[in-house]
């Protein structure tokens, strides 16, 4: 099976604290993979390494079959390689218009280097109507992000990643503090990502949401991948049981990944 991203033997420490130990994971093309674990398990550190925010102490990263130079890997490089991260409530600048949020750092420019503002606004408007489903007559690409609901903001951030055809979209707790309707919309966005042959890494404490959209579950405990399985191998109730078991188990570097 083709993989979008593969991490091999990632280690990361912060001072005397060993945050990650021998992280090995692969994200197949066209699938949603979920990272499951308690607070402090290491999930955030993993996604920050994959997205270029943190540099591991050792280990290697492969994107679309090519090894990444970890010494120069950054958020900008991650985006250029097709890795986009959507953080809860932090993916968008609330005081900036929608069109600038969509194209920040990746503006369309003419031969003289000027931003093609009208084209960017038209594309943003199409995104609002077609991807997010905003149908009001007064919808404008010039509206501020603060005018959108939580679900609409997450939808815009995910749609932005899809517009730039990100090979991998990392979603960090995208359904937290949203209404039931907004949660449904965000989960629909996540389900639609594999339709383009792209992949998603989904981090959520809500195991019901995880089971709805993920093809594979990776359980993180004490800084390592402690267990993995496919959705058809585990019910929602078993997800809860597995998480509780790993949370209570003593730390064991020799634990094998299923």
Give the topology:
Layout (H helix, E strand, L loop, with lengths): L2 E12 L2 E12 L3 E5 L6 H8 L7 E6 L2 E2 L7 H6 L2 E5 L10 H6 L13 H16 L17 H14 L4 E5 L7 H13 L6 E5 L3 H7 L2 E6 L2 E7 L5 H13 L10
Parallel strand pairs: 3-8, 3-9, 6-7, 7-8
Antiparallel strand pairs: 1-2, 1-4, 4-5, 9-10
Explain this structure to me?
This protein has 258 residues and is of the alpha/beta class. The chain has a domain of 171 residues: P-loop containing nucleotide triphosphate hydrolases (Rossmann fold, 3-Layer(aba) Sandwich), CATH 3.40.50. It has eight helices and ten strands. Strands 6-7-8-3-9-10 form a six-stranded mixed beta sheet, sandwiched between helices. Strand 4 and strand 5 form a beta hairpin. InterPro entries: AAA+_ATPase, ABC_carbohydrate_import_ATPase, ABC_transporter-like_ATP-bd, P-loop_NTPase. This is Monosaccharide ABC transporter ATP-binding protein, CUT2 family. GO terms for molecular function: ATP binding; ATP hydrolysis activity.
Classify the beta-strand content into a percent band: 25-35%
What sequence of helices (H) and strands (E) makes up the elements?
Answer: EEEHEEHEHHHEHEHEEH
| C-alpha Rg (nearest Å) | 19 Å
Sheet with most strands: strand arrangement: 6-7-8-3-9-10
User: What is the highest CATH level, the class of one domain?
Assistant: Alpha Beta
Mean pLDDT comes to 85
The H-level CATH homologous superfamily of one domain, spelled out, is: P-loop containing nucleotide triphosphate hydrolases
For the record, the CATH architecture of one domain stands as 3-Layer(aba) Sandwich
Low-confidence stretches: 251-258
Bulk shape: globular
Helix content: 25-40%
Category from helices, strands and their pairing:
alpha/beta
Number of strands: 10
Q: How is the biggest beta sheet arranged?
A: 6 strands, mixed
- Number of discrete helical segments: 8
């Amino acid at each position: 099976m083709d993989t979008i991203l593969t991490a091999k033997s990632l280690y990361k420490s912060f001072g005397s604290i060993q945050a990650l130990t021998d992280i090995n994971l692969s994200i197949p093309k066209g699938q949603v993979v979920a990272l499951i674990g308690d607070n402090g398990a290491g999930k955030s550190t993993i996604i920050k390494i994959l997205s270029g925010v943190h540099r591991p102490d050792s280990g290697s990263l492969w994107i679309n079959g090519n090894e990444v130079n970890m010494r120069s890997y950054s958020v900008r490089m991650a985006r250029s390689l097709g890795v986009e991260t959507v953080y809860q409530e932090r993916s968008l600048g609330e005081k900036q218009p929608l069109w600038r949020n969509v194209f920040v750092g990746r503006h369309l420019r003419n031969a003289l280097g000027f931003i093609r503002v009208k084209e960017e606004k038209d594309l943003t408007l199409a995104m609002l109507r077609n991807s997010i489903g905003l149908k009001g007559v007064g919808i404008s690409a010039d509206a501020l992000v603060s005018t959108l609901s939580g679900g609409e903001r997450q939808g815009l951030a995910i749609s932005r990643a899809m517009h730039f055809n990100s090979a991998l979209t990392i979603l960090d707790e995208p359904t937290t503090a949203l209404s039931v309707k907004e949660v449904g919309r965000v989960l629909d966005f996540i389900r639609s990502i594999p339709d383009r042959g792209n992949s998603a890494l989904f981090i959520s404490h809500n195991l019901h949401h995880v089971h709805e959209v993920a093809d594979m579950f990776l359980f993180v405990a004490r800084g390592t991948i402690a267990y993995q399985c496919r959705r058809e191998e585990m019910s929602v109730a078993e997800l809860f049981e597995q998480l509780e078991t790993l949370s209570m188990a003593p730390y064991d570097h020799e634990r094998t990944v299923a």
